[in-house]
Design goal:
Blueprint (H helix, E strand, L loop, with lengths): L1 H9 L15 H14 L4 H9 L10 H25 L5 H10 L1 H33 L7 H17 L2 H32 L20 H11 L8 H4 L8 H29 L10 H10 L3 H16 L1 H17 L17 H17 L8 H26 L4 H30 L2 H26 L16 E6 L4 H13 L2 E8 L2 H14 L4 E6 L6 H17 L4 E9 L12 H9 L5 E9 L3
Parallel strand pairs: 1-2, 1-4, 2-3, 4-5
Helix pairs in contact: 2-8, 2-11, 2-13, 2-14, 3-9, 4-9, 4-11, 4-16, 4-17, 5-6, 5-16, 6-7, 6-13, 6-14, 6-15, 6-16, 6-18, 7-14, 7-15, 8-11, 8-12, 8-13, 9-17, 12-13, 14-15, 16-17
């Protein structure tokens, strides 16, 4: 029953050879990976106006130069991350750049900040989208937390179906929002030129002196406007999701995203200024723009629907980037190994599920009111922004490729601006962003603890393959020893198996031919005197191929009246929490073998000391 429900919700399993079909073209990737950045048009300009209105409506003209400053930073970031894409085509973004050029701790700081940021992105985006839904249907307001949780579950299931399925469905509302915004900006500009649309209030002239305006207030408005740049880094983390040539396609997608974001951001602020729109508590700036330009007609409601959809779907950027970043961290042994495992649909399912679960927890803790988290996740993304820029400066100075001076200048300018933004955030919004200075070091500490555990495990499991096992005395029997590699656990289990019988077969199941060849080569060098059978699993499953192999051996053994014994190598961690860092495939396999009649199952335990 569970298997049928899983197939219905997620779809049929895909072969490893079908991975190419799950790659994204530029237009689908733009929708999936840019939804977070593009959605910031719905709240970035409004955040600027909310700060400026404190100095009076005459101060709203400052939104234009502030937006120009945000656009300068956007250009610097886009050019910088374009360079990162070509310098690090394997993906990893700020984490890889900072780790390789600044050191492990800086890399983990960038990676940890981004992971936390992606969780916040999902929680904030879904909560904002839910607010838009409950505003349209007030009767649902008391159920806003439940609605937000259901939306997260729906997006999680959609992403578990694979990149292609989610990208196809999600691209429509993203492009619908972009088209609606372009229509609003175009109609607003036409109405301003022809005078067919009346402003809400007369706008202050550019350069109008404002009493009481301060540098602190302007810097705070600028920092608020920089929330529009969250999500710019996502494409550099997900290069492996693109069709070949991946770096070129990722770079072009990044430029398209930057161009669209610049047009929408500058257009929205300009139209809001021209029509004298001011932030109010019961209506968003975009809603006021739509009502002023169109009135309460169908185009106004199209704009509202598009805004609600983009705010909800901004969460999908997190679902695209979080699992890939978690994979890179897990590959370097800083996150649990299960994050490196691909699911039935060739996505990193454990990362997708973890992101969904943590986002739901955050939504429930804050009761769906996550507005105060916007500055937190904005400053969270500027930490990796700054570190990636600094890392690229070191990269160019070390390698000095052709044209490196111009590239260094680009990253140097980007670094200066990013550090300036961080300082502005700390000075103007410290009361809102202080938790990031607790969360990020805590996450980095957890990374180091996990890494230390894996190093201890590797030291304790390492085996000397120059020592032969041929001298071990054997007796007759049919013994099958499933192995996952050449380790101390396997050595101990093979020694035990040879003490039981002279008919011992080791079996290794792999999902990649190159790994199988590597195991076969190491096995031959080990001189165990035991036959190794390797099986290529095209669906990445271990249990089913192993059960079929055991059944075939059992069929032959029954004819000779022999008993088949399956000896499982298994190590046990010293502490309970360390078990969560390892795949529990042995437990699942043994549970499947219990149903086989007359097959003896034996476990050879190996207990770790640290």
């Amino acid at each position: 029953m569970f298997s049928k429900i899983k197939r219905l919700l997620i779809g049929r399993p895909l072969k490893s050879t079908e991975a190419t079909s799950q790659k994204l073209n530029k237009f689908k990737a733009l929708a999936v990976l840019s939804s977070d950045a593009l959605s910031s048009v719905a709240y970035g300009p409004e955040q600027i106006l909310i700060v400026l209105i404190a100095a009076g409506s005459a101060a709203l003209w400052y939104s234009l130069p502030i937006t120009l400053g945000v656009l300068v930073l956007l250009v610097a970031l886009v050019l910088s991350y374009r360079q990162i894409i070509f310098a690090y085509p394997g993906g990893g973004g700020a984490y890889m750049v900072a780790k390789e050029n600044l050191g492990v701790n800086f890399g983990l700081t960038a990676g940890g900040a981004l992971l936390v940021d992606y969780i916040l992105t999902v929680a904030v985006s879904v909560s904002a989208g839910t607010d838009a839904i409950t505003s349209a249907f007030p009767v649902l307001r008391e159920h806003h937390v439940l609605i937000a949780v259901l939306i997260v579950i729906l997006i999680t299931l959609l992403n578990l179906r694979g990149l292609t399925d989610s990208a196809t469905l999600l691209s429509y509302p993203v492009y619908f929002f972009v088209l609606m915004m372009l229509f609003v900006i175009g109609a607003g500009a036409f109405g301003a030129v022809t005078g067919t649309a009346a402003p809400v209030q007369s706008h202050p002239a550019i350069g109008t002196p404002v009493m009481g305006i301060s540098l602190f207030l302007l810097l705070r408005a600028f920092a608020s406007g920089c929330t529009a740049l969250t999500g710019v880094e996502a494409i550099s983390n997900a290069i492996s999701s693109f069709k070949a040539p991946a770096p070129e396609n990722a770079a072009k997608t990044l430029l398209m995203m930057g161009g669209i974001l610049a047009i929408l951001l500058s257009g929205t602020v300009s139209i809001a200024y021209w029509y004298g729109i001011q932030p109010v508590s019961d209506q968003t700036v975009l809603s006021q723009m739509g009502e002023t330009i169109f009135g309460r007609n169908i185009f106004y409601y199209f704009l509202q629907v598009g805004t609600a959809l983009i705010l909800v779907l901004a969460a999908n950027t997190g679902y695209s980037a979080f699992p890939l970043l978690a994979f890179n961290l897990a590959k370097d042994k800083f996150m649990p190994r299960p994050f490196t495992v691909k699911g039935d649909r060739l996505g990193f399912s454990n990362g997708i599920i973890t992101l969904g679960a943590l986002s739901i927890v955050l939504i429930m803790i804050f009761n769906g009111r996550t507005e105060n988290l916007i500055p937190l996740y904005a400053v969270g993304v500027f930490i990796p922004f700054s570190l990636s820029q600094t890392g690229m400066i070191v990269h160019w100075m070390k390698n000095k490729p052709k044209g490196w001076v111009g590239k260094l200048v680009t990253n140097f300018v980007g670094a200066l601006i990013c550090y300036l933004i961080l300082i502005i955030f700390i000075v103007t919004k410290f009361t809102q962003i202080w938790p990031v200075f607790i969360f990020v070091p805590l996450v980095v500490g957890i990374f180091h603890k996990i890494h230390q555990h894996y190093l201890h495990v590797a030291d304790q499991l390492r085996v000397d393959i120059s020592v032969s096992l041929r001298s071990i005395k054997t007796t007759d029997n049919v013994i099958i020893v499933p192995i996952a590699g050449i380790t101390k656990v396997v050595e101990q289990s093979l020694t035990y198996a040879k003490s039981l019988s002279g008919n011992v077969v080791a079996v290794y199941i792999g999902s990649r031919p190159e790994v199988i060849k590597k195991i076969e080569k190491e096995w031959d060098a080990w001189h165990t005197g035991i036959r190794l059978v390797t099986i290529y699993s095209i669906y990445r499953s271990i249990t089913d191929p192993l059960v079929r192999f055991i059944q075939s051996i059992k069929y032959k053994a029954d004819k000779d009246g022999a008993t088949v014994t399956v000896v499982f190598p298994q190590f046990y961690t010293k502490k309970w929490w360390q078990r969560l860092l390892h795949n529990q495939s042995g437990v699942l396999i043994k549970a499947s073998l219990i149903r086989l009649v007359d097959v003896v199952i034996a476990t050879v335990p190996y207990r770790l000391k640290k």
